[in-house]
């Protein structure tokens, strides 16, 4: 697909969002290292093209579910940077009122059913959302992001099977960044690649270069069309790479520095996209530089906001932990 086939405003949005995700993760890393962010931290640097290439095809009403590496998905789906930072710092203005932290970023306003510390935990949520779309005859779709490690987990297999037999409007997006903590994916499964797993469930599957946002955009476009026209689910394996350790405290003894440097030098999704934009004469360098300036400013202002926000009061600790009555509407009487 040529860039000129994508509307210019969308290209701008894609570039800005990828840059925002990258610069934000870099700022979060710095902040964590000076002891300002409690809990664990899984950065998304290197994988930006997947979240952005996918979400560029979605409407606000389409649902996503995310992972423990979820800052990028949250921002791509329209989540507020301020709510993200306030959540990281444990402040009341955060996405989960300061009680979730990095791994639990929910944003119902933008139909993000949340990131999740349970590997593969978002898959049943996406399948459930897709079932509700089918039963209510809505045209919305659900997307579940997960890592390749999650494809060895039972939620993946049950989710794909149900989605297939019920022909649900759901897209399974596997971000194959090659490592499950310290284990290379070739040691996690006997067959090569995740996409092949679609065969056993009768689900069309495709492998795509996850470092090329245009390639991701193109395959997801087709998957979304399939879902909206009730043709059923699709499995997408985006081949990607995390440029940082599994968590921020990972000493990465399981992989070679040359390998990491090779990916940074040759497969940086931002550099690849920037080159395409310039070469295909979509925008000039000065437009991209202005976006970079705006992004830096937005992050700076956001950190100030999060720092100045209050912590929750101790008596708020037990609020919002359990759901009470469902706010859903009964759309199917199962008696
Ligand atoms: C059900 C479950 N099993 C194990 C873990 C421990 N764990 C946390 S992250 C992780 C690796 C996940 O790898 P992958 O799904 O490929 O995602 P990535 O971290 O590479 O993005 C594991 C095993 C967990 N959180 N949940």
From TrEMBL:
Classification via Pfam families: E1_dh
Transmembrane segments: none
GO molecular function: 2-oxobutyrate synthase activity; pyruvate dehydrogenase (acetyl-transferring) activity; pyruvate synthase activity
Entry's EC annotation: 1.2.7.11
Entry keywords, A to Z: Oxidoreductase, Pyruvate, Thiamine pyrophosphate
Domain Dehydrogenase E1 component: 17-315
Keyword Oxidoreductase: yes
Reaction it catalyzes: a 2-oxocarboxylate + 2 oxidized [2Fe-2S]-[ferredoxin] + CoA = an acyl-CoA + 2 reduced [2Fe-2S]-[ferredoxin] + CO2 + H(+)
Cofactor(s), by name: thiamine diphosphate
UniProt keyword Oxidoreductase, yes or no: yes
Domain of life: Archaea
InterPro entries to which the protein is assigned, alphabetical: DH_E1, PDH_E1_Alpha_Subunit, THDP-binding
Name of the top EC class for this enzyme: oxidoreductase
Subunit structure: Heterodimer composed of an alpha and a beta subunit.
Name the UniProt record assigns to this protein: 2-oxoacid oxidoreductase (ferredoxin)
